[in-house]
Amino acid sequence: MSTTRRLLVIGERIEPLERVLPLLRRADVVSQRAFSLDNARPLMSGERFDLIITHYPDITISLAELVATVRSESSPCRTSGLLVVAERSEVEEVGALMGRGVNRVVAATAPVDRLLDAIADLLAVKPRRFLRSVIQLDIWVGFGVKRILTVTENVSITGMLVRGGREFAPGTRLHFELLLPHQTPAIRGDLVVVRQSDRVREGVEGFGARVLAFIGDGEARLRAFLDAPTADPADESEPTLRL
């Protein structure tokens, strides 16, 4: 059975979304774009999309008309998720439609991983998996490499929450080597820091990162690990370092 999910993006370029579309493709999400509500209507009337995302405000889109179109009794998208990326000044206005046709509102200025989390939730994508395992991070500084060893808190195919590393500002690019339980060699690739963690909300002092690229078979191995039935929590509760 196919696990591919279908996404419809309505409107002109939505900057935060442009940064996550490559990650969504990696997670088997197929996207289509309509540049106005008029262009989107034939698509929505002909087939169902798992999620519809639009931006507000947009001169080509009436949000009230979009909600009415999506939620009409004859619409194939009647049960689809509807997510609005709103400018900060409009979040409160759009929020009034929550539960009245709109499923989620994310501020355009919010961290990228907040948008990813909202999309994953609405697409019923498996959430990040708790995993405390050793990760090596490398960054080029001057004429050499700064290397630190730390521990992940949770991991998904598109990103991770990492303890420590508070010196890495959002936008910092790092090479990583992640050790999975009972596996060698390490998963290798490159990531970018997208935010500092919220210590009160998440109970972690560290940073959230988005995976930019994997090296070799790293993506396939990590996907297989995440899709496997969860093992005894004791197997994942303590970091292990193999030399």
Descriptive overview:
This protein is an alpha/beta fold. The chain folds into two domains: 5-122, Response regulator (Rossmann fold); 129-235, Thrombin, subunit H (Beta Barrel), CATH 2.40.10. It contains seven helices and twelve strands. A six-stranded antiparallel beta barrel has the order 7-8-9-12-11-10. A five-stranded parallel β-sheet has the order 2-1-3-4-5, sandwiched between helices. A hairpin with a 3-residue loop joins strand 8 (144-155) and strand 9. The longest helix is centred in the first third of the chain and has 12 residues, at 15-26.
Secondary-structure map:
Blueprint (H helix, E strand, L loop, with lengths): L4 E6 L4 H12 L2 E6 L2 H10 L4 E6 L6 H9 L9 E6 L4 H5 L8 E4 L4 H11 L6 E2 L3 E8 L2 E12 L3 E5 L9 E6 L8 E10 L2 H4 L3 E9 L3 H10 L16
Parallel strand pairs: 1-2, 1-3, 3-4, 4-5
Antiparallel strand pairs: 6-8, 7-8, 7-10, 8-9, 9-12, 10-11, 11-12
Key terms:
single chain; about 240 residues; alpha/beta; Rossmann fold; Thrombin, subunit H; 6-stranded antiparallel β-barrel; 7 helices
